[in-house]
Write a structure and sequence with these properties.
Blueprint lengths: L16 E2 L2 H8 L4 E4 L5 E5 L1 E3 L2 E8 L5 E5 L6 E3 L13 E7 L7 E13 L2 E11 L6 H5 L5 E3 L1 H4 L3 E5 L4 E5 L12 E4 L1 E3 L2 E9 L5 E8 L7 E3 L14 E8 L2 E15 L2 E11 L1 H4 L10 E3 L1 H4 L2 E6 L4 E6 L14 E4 L8 E6 L4 H4 L7 E5 L2 E2 L5 H8 L6 E8 L2 E8 L5
Parallel strand pairs: 6-11, 7-10, 17-22, 18-21
Antiparallel strand pairs: 1-8, 2-10, 3-13, 4-5, 5-6, 5-9, 7-11, 8-9, 9-10, 12-13, 12-23, 14-24, 15-16, 16-17, 16-20, 18-22, 19-20, 20-21, 23-24, 25-26, 26-27, 27-28, 27-29, 29-30
């Protein structure tokens, strides 16, 4: 069984492990410089928020603007897919093998140094880029738009980064700037270890026990929380869980279970009755002994705040926004969708969960979604469609599907399984 709505991404959990240790040591020493191209003290740019993930325009060398997910979980810039219309010249490159979280195999990639990276008002010199030689994430199909790669540490390490999820804007400040913060802002220590940001928080489990956990702060994960059970004997599955497909890492599929926590607390802010995923041990075995971490904190929580990442001073600030008190819903319809033509409002069922409402009415992978609750899907953006699937229990869905040459109408009610 696979869970709709949580299979979008765990790409932020990437753990690059190079087959040649000498190459790895050299990569860690690669210097690069990212800087403002003017004397401005800050630069603000809009981003697109899809599946809770931040998508920004980036140019590499002479390329046109490419779409990159901003991901605190990755060290190096990663190109996951290029299209025939994309032009990109890379500097010095060689083939390597890499692997990451997931149950699978190593894949080949190009490692390229000496590149130039451009964002609006920003330039990065001697930039290191990896290019995957096979598409393993299907990011574009899952995001409903062309997505070319992932970028992270190169941006965060050089600036103070303010992410306003409400206005969908990101502001980069010079590291020596003092940022005016609202009275509700609360500041916490941020621990930068191996280029990744960590913080300590408290989870309250189903039995009422509270447990301190160390989490990687993961803007590239679309879920709320992911907890690694083998890292602490006190971590336990909730009494009601569902088997789930949690996403993909570089090494392949990540499977596990989904349940609910009573609460999650960070400083004075506490969220209640939130969803949590529990990856299978095999899928995350490479991460179990890294930095003593117990899991990761994803964007379904982060989007409820304006977040200020301050890597240079190792701190993070959170300011709650209007989404702070919204309930933690998830896709209860029992099916997943992809967009075979990224950028077009063309949606196809990619997976149907056993024993789900969608399965009970006979939905099948490959069904094209034509209408939902009387609305033509040609008029719906992917995020609008997902919001309809992430509604509350008891909501009714009326779907019109196309299966080969047959038109099929199905109706069902969303049901919570956790």
């Amino acid at each position: 069984m696979r869970s709709a709505g949580f299979s979008i991404l765990l790409c932020a959990c990437l753990l690059l492990l190079f087959s040649d240790i000498k190459v790895q040591a050299q990569l860690l020493q690669d210097p690069d410089t990212v800087y403002f191209t003017s004397n401005r003290k800050k630069i603000t740019m809009p981003f697109k928020l899809v599946h809770n993930l931040i998508v920004l325009p980036v140019k590499i060398n002479n390329s046109q603007e490419l779409n990159f997910i901003l991901d605190t979980g990755v060290r190096n810039t990663l190109i996951t897919q290029l299209y025939f219309s994309d032009s990109l010249e890379l500097k010095d490159s060689n083939r390597i093998k890499i692997r990451g979280l997931g149950e699978g195999y190593t894949i080949e990639a190009l490692h390229s140094t000496g590149n130039t990276m451009f964002m609006p008002g920003i330039q990065g010199d001697n930039h290191t880029v990896y290019v995957l030689l096979e598409e393993v994430f299907d990011l574009s199909k899952r995001m409903g738009m062309p997505v070319h790669g992932i970028i992270g540490y190169d941006i965060f390490k050089n600036f103070i980064v303010k992410i306003n999820y409400s206005s969908e804007t990101i502001t980069l400040y010079r590291p020596d700037q003092k940022i005016k913060k609202k009275r509700r802002a609360e500041e916490y220590p941020l621990y930068i270890e191996d280029a990744k940001p960590y913080l300590y928080a408290t989870v309250r489990q189903h039995n009422g026990d509270s447990l301190n956990v160390k989490l990687i702060v993961d803007t590239g994960a679309s879920h709320c929380l992911s907890l690694y059970l083998p890292t602490d004997d006190r971590l336990a599955l909730p009494p009601k869980v569902m088997q789930a497909y949690l996403g993909r890492g570089l090494g392949g599929d990540i499977n596990g279970k989904i349940g609910r926590l009573q609460g999650f607390k960070l400083g004075k802010y506490e969220l209640e009755n939130l969803t949590a995923s529990y990856p299978d041990e095999e899928a995350v075995k490479l991460a179990l002994n890294i930095a003593g971490r117990n899991g990761n904190l994803g964007s379904a929580i982060l989007k409820r705040f304006t977040v200020i990442f301050d890597y240079p001073h190792q701190r993070i600030s959170l300011i709650p926004n209007r989404k702070f008190k919204e309930p933690f819903n998830y896709n209860m319809a029992g099916f997943e969708i992809t967009t075979p033509l990224p950028g077009a409002n063309f949606y196809v069922v990619s997976n149907v969960i056993d024993d789900s409402p969608a399965k009970m009415v006979g939905m099948q992978p490959g069904d094209q979604l034509l209408h939902i609750n009387g609305r033509n899907t040609n008029d719906l953006k992917l995020q609008e469609l997902l919001n309809m699937l992430d509604s509350k229990p008891g909501s009714k869905l009326r779907l019109r599907l196309k299966r080969e040459q047959e038109i099929i109408d199905v109706n069902f009610v969303l049901q919570s399984r956790i």
